[in-house]
């Protein structure tokens, strides 16, 4: 049975590919295939600040609204990521020496939002919410960029699905 609330493929800890959040049928499922990526490295923003990029791509550009300190993005601001010149996603939060720190919000071009209490390091559970523009949302824990423990809740506040250790229990 297809997940009605969360139909997502979350890969990568920061560059998350959310295919859709909402009601879907099996015929509407989409396979999440990551684009070819280089090894993790520093990316230079358009204003000359370095930011850590877990999955750099040759066709991306990054803007930073905050300040630079010793060449690194620093403090509160937003990072906007563009693929082939098209807006892809925005990170809102704090950076320290070009790396994410503290509470994080990621907004994608399709309107989906991911709010995390902290950015995490891919090795532990991070509490957060994945919210669709229609009000459907997943509240719980994420690990390695994947939904792990929590609940899919529709816009009316009714729990529609339960997740434990990365698997949906009510299929």
Helix content: under 10%
Order of helices and strands: EEEEEEEEEEEEEEE
User: What are the low-pLDDT stretches, counting only 5+ consecutive residues below 50?
Assistant: 1-34
Mean pLDDT: 76
Number of helices: 0
Measure the end-to-end span: 6 Å
How many strand segments?
15
Radius of gyration: 16 Å
Overall outline: elongated
The biggest sheet amounts to:
11 strands, antiparallel
Helix-strand makeup class: mainly beta
Total count of domains = 1
Strand percent estimate: over 45%
Could you please describe the fold and organization of this structure?
There is one protein chain. With 171 residues, the chain is an all-beta fold. The chain has one domain. The chain is built from no helices and 15 strands. The strands form 3 sheets. Strands 5, 6, 7, 8, 9, 10, 11, 12, 13, 14 and 15 form an 11-stranded antiparallel β-sheet that branches. A two-stranded antiparallel ribbon has the order 1-2. The protein has a two-stranded antiparallel sheet with strand order 3-4. Strand 7 and strand 8 form a beta hairpin. The relative contact order is 0.17. Residues 1-34 have low confidence and may be disordered.
């Amino acid at each position: 049975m297809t997940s009605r609330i969360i139909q997502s493929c979350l890969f990568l800890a920061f560059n998350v590919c959310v295919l859709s959040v909402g009601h879907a049928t099996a015929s509407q499922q989409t396979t999440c295939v990551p684009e070819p990526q280089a090894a993790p490295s520093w990316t230079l923003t358009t204003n000359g600040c370095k930011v850590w990029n877990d999955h750099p791509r040759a066709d991306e550009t990054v803007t930073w609204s905050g300040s630079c300190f010793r060449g690194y993005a620093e403090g509160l601001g937003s990072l906007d990521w563009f693929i082939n010149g098209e807006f892809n996603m925005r990170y809102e939060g704090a950076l320290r020496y070009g790396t994410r720190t503290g509470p994080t919000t990621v907004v994608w071009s399709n309107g989906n939002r991911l709010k995390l209490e902290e950015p995490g390091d891919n090795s532990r559970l991070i509490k957060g919410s994945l919210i669709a523009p229609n009000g459907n949302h997943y509240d719980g824990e994420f690990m390695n960029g994947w939904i792990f423990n929590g609940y899919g809740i529709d816009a009316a506040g009714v729990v529609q699905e339960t997740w434990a250790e990365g698997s949906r229990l009510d299929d």
